[in-house]
Automatic annotation (TrEMBL):
The active site is at 136 (nucleophile). It is found in: Cytoplasm. This enzyme catalyzes only one turnover and therefore is not strictly catalytic. According to one definition, an enzyme is a biocatalyst that acts repeatedly and over many reaction cycles. It comes from Neisseria shayeganii. Involved in the cellular defense against the biological effects of O6-methylguanine (O6-MeG) and O4-methylthymine (O4-MeT) in DNA. Repairs the methylated nucleobase in DNA by stoichiometrically transferring the methyl group to a cysteine residue in the enzyme. This is a suicide reaction: the enzyme is irreversibly inactivated. GO terms for molecular function: methylated-DNA-[protein]-cysteine S-methyltransferase activity. Residues 2-80 form the Methylguanine DNA methyltransferase ribonuclease-like domain. Keywords: Cytoplasm, DNA damage, DNA repair, Methyltransferase, Transferase. This is Methylated-DNA--protein-cysteine methyltransferase. Belongs to the MGMT family.
Length: 179
């Protein structure tokens, strides 16, 4: 069974899914990707979705609450992220990017030993189903610009400011009515 649960964050409501093995999805409610990602998970894991919670969802929600409060820099919730071998390498490398650090797609490609695979790395980042915990928001353009983020560039900027020690202010920006 893939359990699914929604909860509130400073960046808007989030939806999380987890199996008995670990967290497999964390997205912002309203994302156009959620339905496809949930269908992919059901197909890949050969399990169906059901509203409810398990220990991994409870742990993820608690750790995210601590993260948003500035009390957590590293996540410990187990993950269950079905992927291609290349995606697994890219997502593992993402988890090595430290809190408050940013890297470019080129740097990420170099870190995995595939310096000419920048576009493939960017594509694999875009397939990440576990927002924030697998921190694709920490990858920026080579010129330092904010580039693609499934949750939107405003959320990416907020997350980077939060991790950089600034006090980001959403000012209601992430309320459902404004998305």
């Amino acid at each position: 069974m893939i359990y699914t649960h929604c909860f509130h964050s400073p960046l808007g409501d989030m939806i999380a899914c987890a199996t008995e093995q670990g967290l497999c999805l964390l997205e912002f409610v309203g994302s156009k990707r959620i339905e496809r990602e949930q269908q992919d998970l059901q197909r890949l894991l050969k399990q169906r979705l059901m509203a409810g919670k398990n220990r991994h969802l409870e742990q993820a929600e608690a750790e995210l609450r601590e993260y948003f409060a500035g009390e957590r820099r590293q996540f410990n919730v187990p993950l269950h992220t079905p992927s291609t071998p290349f995606q697994a390498i890219v997502w593992t490398a993402l988890q090595q990017v430290q809190y408050g650090e940013t890297i470019s797609y080129q740097e990420q490609a170099e870190r995995i030993g595939k310096p000419s695979a920048v576009r493939a790395v960017a594509n694999a980042n875009g397939q990440n189903r576990v927002s924030i915990i697998i921190p694709c928001h920490r990858v920026i353009g080579a010129d330092g610009s904010l580039t693609g983020y499934g949750g939107g560039l405003q959320r990416k900027q907020w997350l980077l400011e939060h991790e950089g020690g600034k006090k980001p202010n959403s000012g209601g920006l992430f309320d459902a009515a404004n998305l």
